[in-house]
Amino acid sequence: SYIYFSLHLDSHYADLALGENEFDTPVLSQQTIEPINNKPCKTITGVKPVNNLTSHTGNTCWFFGKRNSEMSPPLDVASIRREEKTEVEEDDKLSLLTWNIDGLDGEEQPQRARGLCSYILEYSPDVVLLQEMVQPYIRFMHKRLATNYTFIEGGEIGYFTTMLLKKTRVTLLDSKILPFRYSRMMRNLLIAQVMFRGQKVCLMTSHFESCKDNSGERMRQFNAVIKRMTVFGISATSVICDLWEQLGEPEKCRYTWDTWANTNKEMRFKNRLRFDRVYLRRAVKDGVPRMEPHSMALVGLERLKCGRYTSDHWGIYCTFSFE
């Protein structure tokens, strides 16, 4: 099997070190949730009640694109996308879009939701991983995309992660939600076992704890996910790779949160950070095809007619080949 997962690393995530096992409860099905820390837990889709939920300024994706906010997108962007999409489908590559959509931002939300759907329809990815999803977005997207995509939601209240699987290319086998025991922000790991053109693939997405003060919890969550991806007896570094690093660290895909270029947030200090990341764990069994990174690009770089961007994060569109 192959494991791919995208995650959102918030600011100040450096000095990652192996920590305690974060997952103290068994893997939960999408329809069940068990008490955590011996406290009663409402039976909903993988989300536990949270008291005094702290606000945050973090985001939910894995890359930042450096571009002057006044620049127009390259003239050949649309043609490149169409060519890449056609190539993916013809060559049986798995295509994936991951994006922190900043659903918590209420500014121009209907136009931004329409922009998100337009990007999904244009790129036509096999898999879509979204973070900071909210119910208004879900309802809007269901009306426009449910015919072509299977929806898997990592929660029902507040904000949460969501997966979309293209029905003609990806078959859902099972999905689970793994809550982070100590999260104060309803964070969890959403997992889906799928079949893609005869090959089993495990998909994961998560939005780690936000803000500098929660760096310790964020590190625990990151390490817990890496540990879950690791094959027993095999070093994680030998089988797990950062997609951006594996593809030669392309400068145009370095920054997924770029307040110099993206003006959705009014920030006192400008920042360019690689919050959003994609990790791949290759198959290790002999005779099993290995998934390899093929390409990546940032999306969402164009302003909408309302003057805002689809999100304060850029999305990451990437493709994978089987060898």
Write the layout of secondary structure elements.
Blueprint: E1 2-8, E2 28-29, H1 77-90, E3 94-100, H2 109-123, E4 127-133, H3 135-145, E5 149-153, E6 160-166, E7 170-179, E8 188-196, E9 199-207, H4 215-229, H5 236-239, E10 240-242, H6 243-246, E11 257-258, E12 272-273, E13 276-281, E14 291-299, E15 315-322
Parallel strand pairs: 1-9, 3-4
Antiparallel strand pairs: 1-13, 2-7, 3-15, 4-6, 5-6, 7-8, 8-9, 10-13, 11-12, 14-15
How would you characterize this protein structure?
Pfam families: Exo_endo_phos. Its cofactor is Mn(2+); Mg(2+). By secondary structure, the protein is an alpha+beta fold. The chain has one domain (2-47, 54-322): Endonuclease/exonuclease/phosphatase (Deoxyribonuclease I, Chain A). 20% of the residues lie in helices and 29% in strands. It has 6 helices and 15 strands. The chain has helices at 77-90, 109-123, 135-145, 215-229, 236-239, 243-246; strands spanning 2-8, 28-29, 94-100, 127-133, 149-153, 160-166, 170-179, 188-196, 199-207, 240-242, 257-258, 272-273, 276-281, 291-299, 315-322. The strands form 3 sheets. The protein has a 7-stranded mixed beta sheet with strand order 2-7-8-9-1-13-10. The longest helix has 15 residues, at 109-123. The radius of gyration is 18 Å and the shape is globular. The two termini are 13 Å apart. 44% of the residues are buried. The model is unreliable at 11-80 (pLDDT under 50).
Strand content: 25-35%
CATH superfamily caption: Endonuclease/exonuclease/phosphatase
Measured between the Cα atoms of the first and last residue, the distance is 13 Å
Gross geometry? globular
Derived from helix and strand composition plus strand pairing, the structural class reads: alpha+beta
**Over the alpha carbons, how many angstroms does the gyration radius reach?**
18 Å
* Overall tally of structural domains: 1
* Helix content, binned percent: 10-25%
Strand order of the largest sheet: 2-7-8-9-1-13-10
CATH topology: Deoxyribonuclease I, Chain A
CATH C-level name: Alpha Beta
pLDDT < 50 stretches? 11-80
Query: Can you count the helices?
Result: 6
The main β sheet shows up as: 7 strands, mixed
Helix and strand string, N-terminal first? EEHEHEHEEEEEHHEHEEEEE
